[in-house]
Specification:
Layout (H helix, E strand, L loop, with lengths): L14 E9 L6 H11 L3 E8 L8 E9 L2 H12 L4 E2 L6 E4 L17 E6 L2 E6 L6 E5 L4 E5 L9 E4 L4 E4 L23 H17 L3 E6 L2 H4 L3 H9 L5 E4 L1 H13 L1 E2 L2 E2 L12 H12 L2 H6 L7 H7 L3 E4 L16 H11 L3 E7 L2 H10 L5 E6 L2 H9 L5 E5 L2 H18 L1
Helix pairs in contact: 1-2, 3-13, 5-13, 6-7, 11-12
Length: 422
Amino acid sequence: MNAPHASEKQTPVEFVEDVEIAGHIIDSLILPKVLDQITAAGGTFRVKKIAIGQARSDPSFALVEVTATSSQRLEEILAQISDHGAVPTAQQDCRLVAADMDGAFPEGFYSSTNQRTEVRIAGRWVEVSNQEMDCGVAVDTAASEARCVPMSDVTAGALFVVGHGGVRVLPHQRSSEREGFEFMSSGVSTEKPKGVAIRQIANELFKNRREGGRSLLVGGPAIVHTGSDEHLCRLVRGGYVDLLFAGNALATHDIEQALFGTSLGVHLERGDITEAGHEHHLRAINRIRRAGGIRRAVADGVLTSGIMYECVQHDVDFLLAGSIRDDGPLPEVVTDALEAQRQMREKIAGVSFCLMIATTLHSIAVGNLLPAWVKVVCVDINPSTVIKLSDRGSFQTVGLVTDVEPFLRSLALELDALECGQ
């Protein structure tokens, strides 16, 4: 940080730092965001140099002088704008402090974002692995490696980055394409043309499968309650789902429907409440527990249809994470929340597209774990689910506010059309 200076007339002392911002900083609106954050935080700026790329594929560059009235205020501004890729030109290695206890970071630890991040170790920039928001960055100086580590996994003696010096964030650039997936990223609205949006989601799923990507589906029990389970089964059979994250409820009511034809005691074919139907979900759980689990129930012929059956039959990995309200639960349900998080982190490796359908808690949980370069679509009848995801930093999420059944039905039809036209 440059030393403060004052004129002979004893003008207020100013603290100054030059930062550089590079990439698609104009069309991604990164530069305006940085400048706005500087002024909103009580600082001032002067653009000392700027070079704007002439073509869409050309990156731009800006050198900006940031000024504040105190060193603390300047540090706060630099910390805020670093999340948008603004890097101080006075390069320095990241500062490392050893954790003094298990389960807690050192004071002043660097809190990670979900964007690609690098830390400077011995004069060399090193990419941070396992990128995830709200973590610390652990550094192995001997191997010159850095990775994101959640608070619960901190071990005493491990070195963690403290402060923002020697850290640079590489913001995910907005696609220059004006068609396709980016069309959806204009906010959350109930008035988007849903047919166009669903067609784009189908194209993304089709493209992801064709290119060997991994698609994650995060689902809630409304998929079953609304009679949409067969549409999802078609996606599983078609190879459009590689990984399923859900809770006890989706699997339970899916199995209840497969065994008894009901969901929450309501007969899905007729729409009427079945006598003693409120017991069906518990009887379904009991039958699966007696069989030794979902996979064993499929192998033994106890479970012969439904979402979970199709996942087992088509080798689709799944993780069921429990909650305090769960009945049973099913044998496969992971009831330890921290263990469920750890397993989620392991399973999302290589995921390139995520479709979240009708589940607030699971959507937010998974959104917290995914890096910014994974495309995410959140479909829910309640717009607050998508808004919460964006508010928590999962800015790459695009939302579609609609009912589950017509969405999945239309999505399955669009995928069928793509299959016929390939």
